[in-house]
Amino acid sequence: MKRTSVDQLNQGPVYLVDDDEAIIDAISFLMDSYGYPIITFNSGEQFLEKVDLSQPGCVILDARMPGLAGPQVQQLLCQAKSPLAIIFLTGHGDVPMAVDAFKNGAFDFFQKPVQGSVLSQSIAKGLAYSERQHWKLKHQALINTLSEREAQIFQLIIAGNTNKQMANELCVAIRTIEVHRAKLMTKLGVSNLAELVKLAPLLADKSES
């Protein structure tokens, strides 16, 4: 009977990238017992070629592999702005590597062998984190499509201004405000003020490009 991790709230793809078949077999068997079927790859190159890096999920990376090693794969995931949660596995107690991994956004770092219960809990939390990252990246991209005026109106809306107050502030007709307001909400895929306010923290991160 499969065991379910306590924090297993978000089920998504879990990848394992390792050149050691014995490790692949052991972790795949162990994590399957916790309800996590593992998609395996023998190299970083194969993983990057086959996986949609824009989608949420969790990847368990061997730190040392022929070809692209774990840190190199992590660097490419960062460059791709992937929401994947990265869990490192290493056969060596390499503290500097662990420090660098966390600095570059790794979710967790373990030395082989790792306990099944510990790894499964990390996967569960990693999947939840990845879902949040995916949501953030998706909506940040939408916010970056706003024009300067739409972003300005967004800021005025979340500051509590009415359409009339915004029209007075910007010296435009109320109808102009209504058009911009409707357009920005359509761009962001929201239908009410509550949904718009939820996106407010991302406005400060709007791309300068």
UniProtKB/TrEMBL annotation:
Pfam families: GerE, Response_reg. Residues 13-127 form the Response regulatory domain. It comes from Shewanella nanhaiensis. The lineage of its organism: Bacteria, Pseudomonadati, Pseudomonadota, Gammaproteobacteria, Alteromonadales. InterPro entries: CheY-like_superfamily, Sig_transdc_resp-reg_receiver, Tscrpt_reg_LuxR_C, WH-like_DNA-bd_sf. The modification 4-aspartylphosphate is found at D62. Residues 139-204 form the HTH luxR-type domain. It comes from the Bacteria. Keywords: DNA-binding, Phosphoprotein, Transcription, Transcription regulation. Transmembrane segments: none annotated. This is Response regulator.
